[in-house]
Amino acid sequence: MAGLRRREIDLLEWSSFKWDKNEIQIKRTDYFEAKTEDSYGSVQVDPELMSVFRGYRPRAKGDFVIESDLEPSAVSWNRYRCQSHFRALAAWLREHGVEGDKPIHVLRKEFGSRINELGDIHAASMALRARRHRHHRRSSTPTAASASQPISAGCSTPRRQTSSQSTSLT
Prior knowledge:
By secondary structure, the chain is mainly α. The protein is built from seven helices and three strands. The protein has helices at about 5-10, 45-55, 85-95, 105-120, 120-130, 145, 150, and strands spanning about 15-20, 25, 40-45. Residues about 130-170 have low confidence and may be disordered. The protein has a three-stranded antiparallel sheet with strand order 1-2-3, with no helix packed on it. The longest helix is centred in the middle third of the chain and has 16 residues, at about 105-120. The chain has one domain (about 5-150).
């Protein structure tokens, strides 16, 4: 998990991977324009997760990491190319205890919270969005890789909530 937004995942191209640095670059492409200028930059990715992507790369049928029969839309709010994958992920997350209307967004925020637990709010902000690793990089800032082994290796199973717990994940 790298803390990417849905649109970033939907339009992520294989050319964005910097294999030798364990990074994914969020960059302007023919199909993608980021939500904010601060959203552009490099995202550190756990070597184990990069290995998973390396395994999928030779089998890719096109430029996009997530394959779809739908062409990319020029209008960002219109639809996602890989909406069927997002629906399946949302259903899986709900089956495993993630509550709310936007379980994928909850997963993204949980990812930031896990980094915050191990580092600081600056580290979580860096991982989720602000300035990525192109500005103000600190050697003590944890990367996605150091946040949590289960989350960094993919979509871990979130903890189930009991009736006594609040609706937010902890």
